[in-house]
Amino acid sequence: QVELVESGGGSVQTGGSLSASCAASGLASGPYAMAWYRREGKARELVASIESDGSTYYADSVMGRFTISRDNAKMTLYLQMNSLKPEDSAMYYCALNSGRGNGMDYWGKGTLVTVSS
């Protein structure tokens, strides 16, 4: 059974930093394309992604402030969030593309990030 479990997140004031992790289990060793998404209300936004070859993508809204990385041996995805803004407040989800042609087909349950002004 494939499982993605996020941890980290939390509450911080504007300008602060937080980090989040996502541990994957139940899969053969990767690396897999993985990503962080966030949802505030109904809108879901791709925050950052990392491909199997290690190439990364960042949304314009987080470019230069967030860093996505992973530890292939631990099958863990990370998101370092610096210079946080109130508009970064959201539920953050990690996602994984297992390569079956369905895009991101596994999702975690999310970790909450709250940034106060």
What keywords describe this structure?
117 residues; mainly beta; 7-stranded mixed β-sheet; 4-stranded antiparallel β-sheet
Please provide a brief summary of the model:
This protein has 117 residues and is an all-beta fold.
Walkthrough of the structure:
This protein is mainly β. It contains no helices and 11 strands. Strands 2, 4, 5, 6, 9, 10 and 11 form a 7-stranded mixed beta sheet that branches. It has a 4-stranded antiparallel beta sheet with strand order 1-3-8-7, with no helix packed on it. Strand 7 (66-71) and strand 8 (76-81) form a beta hairpin. The protein starts with a strand and ends with a strand.
Set down the secondary structure blueprint.
Layout: E1 3-8, E2 10-13, E3 18-25, E4 33-40, E5 43-50, E6 56-58, E7 66-71, E8 76-81, E9 90-97, E10 106-107, E11 111-116
Parallel strand pairs: 2-11
Antiparallel strand pairs: 1-3, 3-8, 4-5, 4-9, 5-6, 7-8, 9-10, 9-11
Counting copies of identical and different chains, the oligomeric state is: single chain
Radius of gyration equals: 13 Å
Could you tell me how far the N terminus lies from the C terminus, measured between alpha carbons in angstroms? 40 Å
Count the helices. How many? Answer: 0
Give a count of the beta strands, DSSP E runs of length 2 or more.
Answer: 11
What proportion of the residues is helical, as a percent range? under 10%
Assess the beta-strand content as a share of residues: over 45%
What low-confidence regions span 5 or more consecutive residues with pLDDT below 50? Answer: none
Q: Average pLDDT, to the nearest integer?
A: 95
Structural class, by secondary structure, is: mainly beta
Report the major sheet: 7 strands, mixed
Overall shape:
globular
Order of helices and strands: EEEEEEEEEEE
